Amino acid sequence: MKRFWTDVAIDADRVVTLDGRPVRTPGRVPLALPTDALAEAVAAEWRAVGETIDPRAMPVTGLANAAIDRIAPDPRAFAAGLAAYGGSDLLCYRALSPDDLVARQRAAWDPWLDWARARYDVHLETTAGIVHRAQPPATLARLAEAVGALDAFRLAALSPVVTITGSLVLALALVEHAGDPDTLWAAAHVDEDWQAELWGEDALATAARANKRAEYDAAVRVLAALD
């Protein structure tokens, strides 16, 4: 679609407008944002549009659309889907060898498991290898409760972080500002970074990682704008 507007503004209800007309989600609902900061972040993406609209260059708008159209109608069901990642969290599956990788995982991941234990009063089982290790039902219930307490916009931001990192614990730490985004990103990529050091970087993998980092950073911007 070609750009058809000149002015981008935000009305009194925090709806982003184009030449005075409200931007609408794919579900045809006015794009109303819960905070001034998030409304400005969405408006900035619309101001930055060139001759044609490229949704890939508007990730914050995309997350806002998802919050309104996909999540808000049934946030409990969406939260339950994300909470299920707690049963197979990346941080709980450790390498058997070599010793260097084992040590890196321990150094990067143990502090976040300790944080989750202290924050949510849960016990997370760890294992070596890829065979599934069930988590205690009480742990899964508490993590599900934490996810279920989030609003639709925070759930929208949490979703790509969980899927990109493979860790519900790291995603919750990001939502709760328990760690800075770069530290949490690095923790999620210990294995990948170790492989790159050992075998060198692959161009396709590097490009894929850059795309994931862009999605991750968009989620970080949304979370920051909600506070």
Provide a descriptive summary of the structure in words.
By secondary structure, the protein is mainly alpha-helical. About 60% of the residues lie in helices and about 5% in strands. It has a three-stranded antiparallel beta sheet. A two-stranded parallel sheet has the order 4-5. Helix 1 packs across helix 2 (about 60-70) and helix 6 crosses helix 7. The radius of gyration is 20 Å and the shape is globular. It starts with 7 loop residues before the first strand and ends with a helix. The model has no long low-confidence stretch (mean pLDDT about 95).
Cross-sheet strand order for the largest sheet? 1-2-3
* Structural class by secondary-structure content: mainly alpha
Report the C-alpha radius of gyration, rounded: 20 Å
Q: What's the average pLDDT?
A: 96
Largest sheet: 3 strands, antiparallel
SSE layout and pairing:
Layout: E1 8-10, E2 16-18, E3 21-22, H1 36-47, H2 59-71, H3 75-83, E4 93-94, H4 99-120, E5 127-128, H5 137-148, H6 152-165, H7 168-175, H8 181-188, H9 190-199, H10 203-226
Parallel strand pairs: 4-5
Antiparallel strand pairs: 1-2, 2-3
Helix pairs in contact: 1-2, 1-10, 2-6, 2-10, 3-5, 3-6, 6-7, 6-10, 7-8
Keywords:
globular, mainly alpha, 5 strands, 227 residues, 10 helices
Write a compact overview of the structure shown.
The protein is mainly alpha-helical. Helices cover 58% and strands 5% of the residues.
